[in-house]
Amino acid sequence: GEAEEIKSDMSRKADEECFIAVYPNAVSAINISGRLQYWNAGPRINFSNQFIDDVGFVNAILDRIGADYNIDRKSIYATGVSNGAQMAYRLACEISYRIAAIAPVAGGMVYQNCDPQFSVSIMQFHGTADPGWPYSGGPSCFVDDVFPPINTTLSNWSMFNNCSGQKSIFFQNGTVSCENQECSENSNIILCTVDN
Description:
The protein has helices spanning 2-8, 10-17, 54-68, 83-94, 150-160; strands at residues 27-28, 37-38, 77-81, 101-105, 121-127, 138-139, 146-147, 167-173, 176-182, 188-194. A hairpin with a 5-residue loop joins strand 9 and strand 10 (188-194). The protein is α/β, with parallel strands linked by helices and 196 residues long. The protein has 5 helices and 10 strands.
C-alpha cells in the first residue's frame, strides 16, 4: 500500500500521464495490522492465508473504480514486488479477461492451476543476485521453499500466450538488459534482467 506508493513514485507518474494508480494492502500474516502482509498468491506460499480471496478483493476494487470513474477497461495493469509479483501472476491467471498486462518485480508464479482465458503481456524485472527468488532457481532465503528459475515462469507464459519463441534484446544499459518475445493477441513477454 502506502510504502509501495512512496517507493514506486507511481502517483506522480499517474498524474503526469493521466491514469489511476491504486495501492491495495494485503492481509497481515500474523494478525498484526500493517506487519508482514502477504497476498494469497497460491498454495506454495505457506504464510499466506488460503481462505483469503484476494482475487475477489481485487475484482471488487476494479468494480468500484469502474463504477466511480470513466476508465479504459482494456488497459488495466497489475504490478508488485516479491509476493506482490506472485499475486500479479495469479491475477493474470484468474482474471485475464480484466488484466491486460502485469509487471512483476523480483518474484515469479507460484499459482499452480493457471489457465488464462486470454493472453496477458508480461514485463518481468529480476536481478541475478535476488536472494528471495533466485534467478536460476533454488532455495529462498526468506521463505521455506525452493523456487524454479524465473525463466520457467516465463516459459509457461510463453505457452499460455502462444509466443513466437524468438527473443530479441531491445534494451541494454550497464548491468540491465531487456529481451522481448512477441505473442498472440498482440501480447508480449519481456524479461528485464539486472546483473547482480
